[in-house]
Amino acid sequence: MHSRKFLLRVVVELIVTVCLAFFVSELLLPLVAPRFPDAASRMIFLSLAMLLAGPVVVYRALTAWAYHDGKALSGDVVRPFFAIMACGVLLTTLATIWMAYESRRDSEAKFDALAERVKVEMTRRMANFEYGLKALRGLHEASEEVSLKEFRNYCEVVNPVESFPGAMGQGFIRRVQSSQRDAFLNWAHENLGRDFKIKSAGSVKEHDNYYVICHIEPLARNQAAWGLDVGSERNRREAADKAIQTGLPTLTAKINLVQDQLNHNGFLYYLAVYETGMPRNTAEERDKAFMGWAYMPITSELALEGIIQSADEMLDIEVYDDTALDPSSKLFCGHGFHFPEGGVAKASYRPQFIKSFPEQIGGRHWTVQITSNPNFDKTISFMRPEITILFGGLLTFLVAAVVWNMGSSRRQAIQLAETMTVDLKTAKDEAEQNAHRFTAIFINVPVGVALLDADGRVLNINPEGLKLWEAYSRRQLRGCSLLDQVPDDGHAAVLHTLKEAVAGRDAHTEFQMIGFRGTVRLVEMHAVVVGNVRHDGASTQILTAMRDITKQRRTENELREARSRAEAANQTKSEFLANMSHEIRTPMTAILGYTDLLAEEQHREVSLNDRMEYINTIRRNGEHLLMIINDILDLSKIEAGKMTVESVPTRIDMVVREVMELMQVKAAAKGLALSATIETKIPKVIPCDPIRLRQILVNLVGNAIKFTEIGCVRVQCRYDSTSKAVQIAVEDSGIGMTEMQMERLFQAFVQADNSMTRRFGGTGLGLRISKRLAEILGGDITITSEIGIGSTFCVSLFIDNIHDSNWLEPTEHLEAIGKVDSSDQAKAKEHKRPLQGMKILLAEDGPDNIRLISFHLRKAGAEVDTVENGKLLIEKMTVDGTVEGELKDPSPCDVVLTDMQMPEMDGYEAARLLRAKGARLPIVALTAHAMSGDLKKCLDAGCSAYATKPIDRDRLIKSVQRFHPEAMSSTVI
């Protein structure tokens, strides 16, 4: 009974001891593990509690054991035991606190480094916008007046949305006096568009002048900001005025951008533009020289979203447009770690580190608050405090146990000596392990590391260094000097670097190094002195790290060369665009001029012949303009790899006859003889694309006529049995070309030389297009030429499997086709009104196009009804006149002719809706789109046929005539 009570008392004492240890550990934990992650804090807490409770528990257990055995504990044993335990616990606790603070300082240093990286990245991103604004200011200051087209061309090259992430575009703002508002609007309507108008932001009611956004690109996503008076809103106006007075890039306060439909936090970045040559040293001078603002609308979320990645997503970042952390001024909030939704972890999480610093950007005082997140906590090493607790506790218990045993008997003293011997051996093993660890690092580091003396002789080297030397072992390098592997012209740089290292300064250089096998490498070397440095340098050892940068430098050189090639290509394209501008404006000038002459006929008498001459001139220049646009589109499709050709049985002689018919008038106008012959037997029919072949020959014959003043142009057809190729040669007696001109002739955006363009005109696209089309057809175009004699362009089409029976015999002359006999004329008269009796419903939103198309259709005999969009088209076809209603039966029309791009409801949606309602009547698509894939898009929407703009009367009538009730078996809706 007595023994049971004693045991119960011991258990209670142990429980109380453990509780007290937990309580004391809870008090010590903030000192031992300040702001450590929860998992680390719990582990340190348990270790600390065990350390505190352990000695008491051990002592009480030993006393209970001695009491159970009937032995008394001697004071000589108890006092040393408790002294050692107390000292061990105290020292271990202090060491743990010190190690915890060391870990904390390391983590804080890492946090500061990441925060600095974020600061640098944010500064770099905002500086990028300044570069864009300065470039735009340079454009305006270098030109007296930047036109809308020049501004758009500049923006297409710069591409502000891609080049400046976060920017919605870039633009130019003019300051307009209130008294000049009407004059400015007249100028804007003439130069910017009739739909331009001044819009107000609305918060500043009265102001003397307007700050109007005249140019902004890309216009599609910034339409709401075009014409906006930024001076009508306080934040925008204050920043704009500040930009004038300081001449520096200036930010607005946080605003909502009118063009940002997502209502992101945003701001405007201004840079004042001044008149070139005017002084701008003072605020008054800058105000007098002021011309306008270059500006960018920027969304802060997009502009700053990437800075999280610069800190490896280990930090959370908040940016405020104020010196105070006011939620209403928050510009940006980025989280590197996302807590799971619905959990309590986010609310209970306490960041390890928080740092706030001011940043001045564009004249605004921003405050950046950076906090660590769980990703950062994962990188914090809390092993040192735990190891210190565990190791200190174990050592304390071990020493206490040894003392306990020493106080008991001599045998215990011997055991203590043996234990200490084991401890010494363990310490030695750990030292050896550390030495092995450092050796492993030296051997396995992925750069060449060599230990040199002051003269550059090798003392030790790692395997990567052996690779640089091309040596098979360290023994081979014994006594060798680094200078032995460096060319003579590099000795001075290497010796200077070694001296700089000995002097304790930053030592870095690049030099050529020759390996033992003769390989020449470009090596980057860093050097630092190790050990004590004597005044005579006798014991100096220099640790060098060397890296092969040959490939890196080669890559940099290749990038520079690629940039040079890109700049050259850009220059070539710029010259091409300038030429295209001239070529397009020339026919446009004639069209607009003769249109004005026709408009003035009511004020003067003009003969019918003159009127017809005006009309023919307008049509001729319109066709020339269309030809230029078609050439540009063809080249774009070819260069993009979107040009497709078909392979159908094609008669070469028929294609040549058609080309002769087309070009006969042009040749006759210059007094040139145009002839075509078959020189040898040629296949009658070959697989080819007749349209593209005709396009090639028209280009070649047209060029021959253009560059020939006197003589003739001959087209010769022959078959080369060796290469199995049908050859069509276009020979002229024109000016001829040099070898250098022929080498440049087929390059993109290049003519023979600029003097040819000035003398003969033209875009220089025809030969490039012809060359690429010939290659797509499986052939080629070659050229021979002699200055003053003429040129011969030969189209070769390589053909296999030609039947012997299908050949054309040689002829001296191919007659032009296209002559219309009397029977054909009679038929033409009969079909002068081919659409007689047809009812056509036309959907078109352009009033001019409605009048033109209706005129052609009615003249062809059709009855035409018109609507302005797809919604009205559907309502016209339904019983109750609504979009949801059922279709009329019978249909009110025979054919629907619809434009595909209309407001409210376009042609695609209208066609799909008609087909969904069960309509079976023909639907003919009418669109200005001329790129590949448009026909398929229209057919997929439910259209039956396809016609392109600009309107060609004959093609339009043929497209509709296909669906004449007389030509169709049935038409059911």
UniProtKB/TrEMBL annotation:
This is histidine kinase. Residues 507-561 form the PAC domain. Residues 142-321 form the CHASE domain. SMART domains: CHASE (SM01079), HATPase_c (SM00387), HisKA (SM00388), PAS (SM00091), REC (SM00448). Residues 839-964 form the Response regulatory domain. The keyword Signal does not apply. PANTHER family: HYBRID SIGNAL TRANSDUCTION HISTIDINE KINASE J. Residues 552-579 form a coiled coil. Pfam families: CHASE, HATPase_c, HisKA, PAS_4, Response_reg. InterPro entries: CHASE_dom, CHASE_sf, CheY-like_superfamily, HATPase_C_sf, HATPase_dom, His_kinase_dom, HisK_dim/P_dom, HisK_dim/P_sf. GO terms for molecular function: ATP binding; phosphorelay sensor kinase activity. Keywords: ATP-binding, Cell cycle, Coiled coil, Kinase, Membrane, Nucleotide-binding, Phosphoprotein, Transferase, Transmembrane, Transmembrane helix, Two-component regulatory system. It comes from the Bacteria. CDD domains: HATPase_EvgS-ArcB-TorS-like, HisKA, PAS, REC_hyHK_CKI1_RcsC-like. The modification 4-aspartylphosphate is found at D899. GO terms for cellular component: membrane. The keyword Ribosomal protein does not apply. Residues 579-801 form the Histidine kinase domain. Its EC number is 2.7.13.3. The chain crosses the membrane at residues 6-31, 43-62, 82-101, 387-407. It is found in: Membrane. It catalyses: ATP + protein L-histidine = ADP + protein N-phospho-L-histidine.
